[in-house]
Amino acid sequence: MPARVRIDSETRTVIVEWPDGFRRTFSWSRLRAACPCALCRAEAQHAREDPLFLRPQPDDTLVDFAYVGNYAVRFFWGDGHSSGLYTWRYLRDLDSE
Fold this sequence. Notes:
The chain is an alpha+beta fold. It has a single domain (about 5-95), classed as NE0471 N-terminal domain-like, CATH 3.30.2020.30. The chain is built from three helices and six strands, in the order βββααβββα. It has helices at about 30-35, 40-50, 90-95; strands at about 5-10, 15, 25, 60-70, 70-75, 85. It has a three-stranded antiparallel β-sheet with strand order 1-2-3. Strands 4-5-6 form a three-stranded antiparallel β-sheet. A hairpin with a 5-residue loop joins strand 2 (about 15) and strand 3 (about 25).
């Protein structure tokens, strides 16, 4: 579990720091685009398979976050979306911007 998760509204980033010193900085747009929920994954898959599919443009304004047990974090987006659970392993392995 990370030692610290911090939202920087000025730079529109989330900084995640682990106890071993490993650190990731994610833009809000990167995190929103990488939402692991079933709906977002299905839309992304549909867009890859059908070049004419118009994927809805999500709001990438980060409103808040909450820890989910000791294994994940949930982000609350400006459009009300919050069903994606970003596990610590997922965030550690996700490419940052």
